[in-house]
Write a structure and sequence with these properties.
The chain is an alpha+beta fold and 143 residues long. The chain is built from two helices and nine strands, in the order ααβββββββββ.
């Protein structure tokens, strides 16, 4: 055997062994998710929270409204019938979610970090305000 044949043989063995080592997976070590994968996971969770779930006749949707700086945000939303709307108070004072007319929405006083939820089962436009702060006004349109 000449010297070049031996060198080529050694290189071939190194390439084969190296390739096997690269393709071999160690089940005890899981790769860390990339920043993009983490962001995608967060976005999927958010989308799932507001996504329609249909199994047979059941349909549930959810959406959120923030109470902050003595205002409802967003001030007007449009949702589909059957949507659950959750208000979260971010102010240091307590607020309510109270219908302008009728008694469709009648939430309790909620403090900072607390929530109130209501499912809109009737099509229409629902104006509401904060009882202790009547200048705080908003509207939910249900289609």
């Amino acid at each position: 055997m000449n010297k070049n044949t031996v060198i080529i043989g050694v290189i071939a063995v190194i390439v084969v062994v190296g390739g096997l080592m690269l393709t071999r997976q160690n089940p005890a070590v899981e790769p860390k998710p990339s920043v993009e994968e983490k962001n995608n996971e967060v976005m999927e969770k958010k989308a799932t929270a507001s996504m329609e779930k249909t199994d047979g006749a059941m349909m549930t949707k959810e959406t959120a409204i923030t109470i902050e700086n003595f205002a409802f945000s967003p001030a007007t939303i449009t949702v589909k019938k059957g949507t659950k709307v959750t208000w979260t108070n971010q102010d240091s004072v307590k607020h309510t979610v109270t219908s302008d007319t009728g008694s469709e929405i009648s939430g309790p006083l909620i403090g900072k970090g607390e929530t109130f939820s209501y499912v809109f089962d009737t099509v229409g436009s629902f104006s509401y305000h904060c009882q202790p702060h009547p200048n705080m006004k908003a509207n939910v349109i249900v289609e």
